[in-house]
Amino acid sequence: MENIKDLLNSKKYKGIIPILLTAGRLAEKENIDIYVVGGIVRDLLMNRSINDIDIMVVTDGVHFAKKLAFELGIKKIVPFPKFGTAIIPNKNISIEVATARTETYSKSSRKPTEVVYTDLRGDVSRRDFTINAMAMDIHPLRYGNLTDLFNGILDINEKILRTPLNPDETFSEDPLRMIRAAYFSSKLNFKIDQFTLKSIKKTAHRIDIVSTERIRDEFIKILKTDKPSIGIIILQKVGLLKYIFPEIDMMYGMNQTSEWHHKDIFAHTLQVVDNAAILTDKMEIRFAALVHDIAKPRTRRIDKKKGYTFHGHDAVGEKMLNDVARRMKLSNILKVYLKKLTLLHLRPIALVKDIVTDSAIRRLMVAAGHDLDDLMILCRADITTKNPKRVKKYLKKFEKVEQKMKSVLEKDSLKSFQSPVRGKEIMEFCGIGEGPIIGQIKKNIEEAILNGDIQNNYEDALEYLKKIKENYLGKPN
Hints:
eight-stranded mixed sheet, 24 helices, two-stranded antiparallel ribbon, about 10% strand, alpha+beta, about 50% helix, single chain
């Protein structure tokens, strides 16, 4: 037993202390035992930011949550009476109250078949890892006392992940914990101990009983860590990646020409993800970095002169993401975004290598739209050569392209590009009614602007319309 209340004196925890003190006083009044458990205790000991408070009471958790919510001035709770838990909606920090409990599982589901109410020891022993199996008493008489039954502090100091009980039992009961092992390893830069690692390899097939949504959410958490490759490599090594993301798992051990990239497609891809993580906190860009070369295994060919080629992997990859999005139940917004960046990820690189014309710049800007900046971040992340001179040279060329984009943007305002002459005017000018020909004429005008044949203004567009209208008159509308 140790006392860690001094750790709460840090300014970063000032929003948490009033909640803990209020909960503790209420527990004293109700004459019940109360603790904070799991991540909050771990993060306190590691001096990390705290995003949620998990409170455990040795009584009815839902009943206590209602009373605590009232004390905090919160009108409603979200109860889960079957599990003895409740969420107290709170703007600044998430609060969950749970009854001390153990759970029984069937082999075919990670949902508990039976919930048994227990004491502190019984509750912490069912936790996923020792670093999450600690509890801090917040009862006023014992405030700050730490219970660490499974040497969680020692494992924090040694940066080790292991389960409180037999890992075979821990992972078989709730296979999602295997992905969480990869997540915590990536988030905290901890090693998974060998006994636990062997158990994950043996139990990997059990991930099939976990819902797609839960798997997706845990995987995305890995992408949000400072160095996502740590977690993804673990998933591949233990055999989980082939269940979670087979298209990425397939890249492992698959060679490519190494002029600009790692020889192994998997290693290159993870380097791009880590580069993206350095450049941005935006999860969507990191996800795009993961899938940008998703079609390379499918399009890989061997050319006698060039070595490995991957012709069309951008377009093939864009189509493959329809199946990926369906399987992983990604939102339509994320699907469209990933498809766009995958399809376009070679375009800026082509502009770096070739003579850059206004027309080529315009076409890329129109295609990328509001995601242009994200696309350029992805392209920067895609530079994985270890030669610093090459990197510097490449980035300089990118800067020239971006300067050209700014210049064209100032001229054209093309991020929301459309024909200056609108459909109604075209109908009046040509004396025709609504129909597909109007769209064809607008597209013709837009193409002329993109090609640099005319300027992006109303006068030039109208003059161009005068020249081309005869081509469309007399056609069935």
